[in-house]
Amino acid sequence: MTDTPADQQAASPAKSLYRFRSTDALIGMRAELENLEIFFSSPEQLNDPLEGFKDFVWDGDAIVWKNHIRHYLLCLMHTLMTTMVMGGEYQAISEHDFTLHTEEDMPTPQMREMYGDICGAFFADERAAAYPGLIAARGPIRRDEVLHYFRTLHGRAVTTILQTFVKRRLGPESLVTGPMAAFGETQLLDDKYFALLAQVEVEAGKPGARDALFAASTNTFEQMQLIRLCDDTVPQNGWTSILTDFPPVYIDRLDQLLYPDWYTACFTDNYSHTAMWGNYADSHRGICLEFGVTADKSGKYRLPLYGQVGIGGNKDGTRPIFGWTDLQFDPVIYGESAIEVDFFRSLGRLGRQALVSSWFANESGQRSICADEVLGENEEWRQAYWRRYHDAAIRKLRDWAHEGEHRLVLSAGLSGSKETAARKLKFKPESLTGIIFGIRTTPSDKAKVIRIVQEKWAAGNQTCPDFYQAHYAPESGKIERSKYGLLSGAALSRSSSSRS
After folding, report:
1. Are both 247 and 308 inside the same structural domain?
2. Tell me: the pLDDT tens digits for 187-223?
3. Positive or negative torsion for Cα 254, 259, 260, 265
4. What is the Cα–Cα distance from 330 to 423, expressed in whole angstroms?
5. Which of 90, 119, 232, 481 lies in disulfide reach of 468, CB 3.0 to 4.6 Å?
């Protein structure tokens, strides 16, 4: 017996997936029902702080580590300069994309020359110059250890940059003689520290001892920061934020160098879960939308949505291209840990020239051992790279498994924008097969929903979705639904047609 090719297999039967919404989102200011829209949220807008989290592992040679430090200096230089221009109250570290800066992006030769001076002055210290090799010798390391090293060099980095600004008359002398100078230089590490560190780990002899050691370091730094925040004598402004918060913010933003942003619309296969009604439908005051979806020949369920599908243009400029596309539902994978990502070998968002000049080559043109997979024509690497990107968007810890979640994922490359408007995609009226009112949904909100459906669906001569009321069922001990038979889809459609 031979397998039937995927394109000859029959499509799987239709099923229902459910989307909980508050009445404010559905019939309030956002008017998702009237506009036939599905909003795609950013990870930051979801209720799990580990959305899209990747367990980064840094494993590289001295070339990429030196370039990593150079990149840190570049981002810090940009942030300090922005604060100097905008004023001390401006929170420059809140700018979302500062880690995407490269040397090629600098607007003038003078800026590039200044950046070169900063890097030269920073690495003139023999301890700073030794950092890349000493860190590389540590082998694979994780976030807390990387953060520890950047914290120890942060003081020298700030001082070096501000001294260069003053030397080039870009800032007042007070930058290096006033309150900023009091920050001083944190003590740079030397080879003796790294030798002692290795010895401590050997003596500990326990798996995870290294990670635990640096997690404790992070915890100590965070406590010190809270102590400063509680001190009314310490000014809390943009300058202070750079001095104390820049290293962890920088580390957290490095994900931008690897992958484009993504957004998601969340669905579930279970409308009866009372906790989900409470969490996602405004404590049962909201509504649950039922969408009928059909699987394609490969067994993947999809939903047709209208939005930006690409970018076109000519010599006169570019323009967005809009159209219908069938987005694929993916069941969320619930696991015990986050996806592990090799940082240096996943730098896939920058262009080839920027990767070579800013990350994978030294001043003499020698290539890093990390460059081969990223820069080579390696189809296996490319597929694994995008698989990790997609899997991170649909992976959650096992604690969330009760939600039975299914997701539509939208890449920033497809939507073309991070703006809210570009993340509102339209669905076809016939895709919405049911509307379930919550136990606490008010009669006035129900009536508003029904009127919107009558007007919207009748205008397109579409059969209206069925209406249901959620209620507690003593027999099952669960939330169940009862159909509003007098308001069935067909009856409403006939009523709307007769009035029109």
Report:
1. no
2. 788 889 899 888 888 877 776 778 888 898 899 888 9
3. negative
4. 18
5. 481
